[in-house]
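Changelog note: in this version the structure field was regenerated for every chain. One regenerated record is shown below for reference.
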Amino acid sequence: MQHDDSKERQESSLVGHLFSLEAVLFLMGIVSLVYGLVTTNSMNIFFGLVIIPGVFLLHKVKKKDWKAHWAALEEAQRREQERRRDGR
């Protein structure tokens, strides 16, 4: 049988996504919410309702290109300083 590196990389990537931090946190939020609903424990319901949207926020923040974001802010700040210096 022939060894296929790309297939191995794809499988490890899938396993990595399944056991990623976001997946574990999302699962923890679901379990906390369900447990809270079953036992009518308000703290578990609260934490479940906080964790689940937090996971989506974490995922969005992780995907953002922060280097480009800071470069754009620095460029805008540099332009503003030049505008102020030329206006004086």
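Spot check on this record: The longest helix spans residues 42-63. The mean pLDDT is 81.
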